[in-house]
């Protein structure tokens, strides 16, 4: 497995699956969720509504999969990150679950390449440094990692990008 880092807009990444930092309604929202639904078109929302009708949305830490509409990826894996408040240990566990459950869904669907945004570090206010540590550890601890070829962390803001560079040991040029 190759672990990569990019500073980019995740809606432009060509991988088997991009991950969406969704909310429990699965009906779209702001941030990366808004960008994915806007660029992906209504096919994604229609599938999200079907999932919602069947299982009532998506719980925090869990993940669901749809096709990717007009996006260059094949699938979108929608996972719901925790809002940073209340029990910090519980929130950390839930954030790790987002990465692990997304990777589980990826393996179940034969996905070999996957790109993650920095889940919960926008509107949900999870501390960026802590979130990055959890994300990298969750990915490295994933049991079926050998079945995935490439995992990309896609940072949108420079602060997250610098944090990931440091954690992944990438030199500043
Ligand atoms: P959350 O509600 O989980 O915090 P947000 O979408 O508000 O979700 O933010 C999660 C992360 O996604 C933030 O670090 C934000 O900078 C980033 N982000 C926003 N738009 C994009 C995009 N188009 N591509 C990749 N990352 C994005």
From TrEMBL:
Q: Which InterPro entries match?
A: Macro_dom, Macro_dom-like
Q: What is this protein called?
A: O-acetyl-ADP-ribose deacetylase
- Give the source species: Flavobacterium chungangense
Domain Macro stretches: 1-172
Q: Which domain of life is it from?
A: Bacteria
Stored SUPFAM superfamilies: Macro domain-like
Question: Which UniProt key words apply to this protein?
Answer: Hydrolase
What does the record give under GO molecular function? O-acetyl-ADP-ribose deacetylase activity
Is Cytoplasm one of the keywords UniProt gives this record? no
The UniProt record lists the EC number as 3.1.1.106
């Amino acid at each position: 497995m190759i672990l990569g880092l990019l500073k980019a807009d995740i809606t432009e990444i060509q991988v088997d699956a991009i991950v969406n930092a969704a909310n429990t309604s699965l009906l779209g929202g702001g941030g990366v969720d808004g960008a994915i639904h806007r660029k992906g078109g209504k096919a994604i929302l229609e599938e999200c509504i079907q999932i919602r009708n069947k299982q009532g949305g998506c719980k925090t830490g869990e993940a669901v999969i749809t096709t990717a509409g007009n996006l260059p990826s094949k699938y979108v894996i929608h996972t719901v990150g925790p809002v940073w408040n209340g029990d910090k240990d519980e929130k950390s566990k839930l954030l790790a679950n987002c990465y692990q459950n997304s990777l589980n869904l990826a393996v179940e669907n034969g996905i070999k390449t996957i790109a993650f945004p920095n889940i919960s570090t926008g509107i949900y206010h999870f501390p960026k440094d802590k979130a990055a540590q959890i994300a990298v550890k969750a990915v490295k601890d994933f049991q079926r990692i050998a079945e995935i070829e490439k995992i990309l962390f896609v940072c949108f803001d420079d602060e997250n990008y610098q944090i990931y560079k440091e954690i992944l040991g990438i030199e500043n040029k």
